[in-house]
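Sorry to interrupt, but I need a hand with the structure work. Please put the record directly below this note.
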Amino acid sequence: MTADPRTRAQRRHDTEHRLTHDIDVWVATASPDGTPYLVPLSFDWDGETLLLATATDSPTGRNLAATRTARLGLGDTRDVTMIDGHVEILDIDALPPPPGDRFAERTGFDPRTLTTPYHWFRVVPRRIQAWREVNEMPGRELMRDGRWLA
């Protein structure tokens, strides 16, 4: 039996909870020629943006740098949050210590300590959608043009 659809306000609450408590996110990118790439990465949510880190020369790092866009997926297929965002790139030593320390503590991974070149990638959400079942497809959009709808 399918539960009644959640209100938009409840979906936003659930989405913000997931952003605050989940540690990993699926990151979908594409190269400039359109070749898709999907990888799980750890993240930190500061209440407005998601902070990711990956090797500068990895397919994801190259794609994020080239296109400055990403689609992120949280949760499973029966409780999914999709985030489309603009990507800001930061040199690994350009991020102030507090957010880098928070990322390392939250994820158990500190890219600042590696010898392989890494970059920080800050994803600024432009669109967020959340749904569980087909009855939640209407009204699944929670953010549009960077503004919460609820």
Notes: Helices lie at 8-21, 59-67, 97-107. The first helix runs from residue 8 to 21.
